[in-house]
Design brief:
27% helix; two-stranded antiparallel sheet; binds zinc ion; 2 helices; alpha+beta
Length: 86
């Protein structure tokens, strides 16, 4: 029986990445780059990503929706400036 599983698509948990200025392999595509981004939280644990895979992973992971919801949550708490007393 073939036991080969396709790699799970990389999903980032946190948007917080660190720039890595060194010749390293991208964890997703496997190519070597001299500038990568390190993400501590993903569905694969800590990963190093090149610019291309970083963009793809961001699209896959966040897609705008979540961000929007978060912004609303943040802003919703403090938008009572225009509220009129009854
Ligand atoms: Zn890559």
């Amino acid at each position: 029986m073939a036991n080969k599983q396709p790699k799970p698509k990389l999903i980032l948990v946190s948007k917080r990445g660190t720039k890595v200025d060194a010749w390293m392999h991208c964890d997703d595509c496997g190519y070597r780059y001299d500038l990568l981004w390190s993400y501590a939280k993903s569905n694969r644990g800590p990963v190093l990503l090149c610019g291309v895979c970083k963009g793809l992973a961001f699209n896959r992971s966040f897609r705008g929706k979540k961000v929007d919801a978060m912004y609303r949550a943040v802003q919703g708490g403090r938008c009572d400036g225009n509220r009129k007393p009854r």
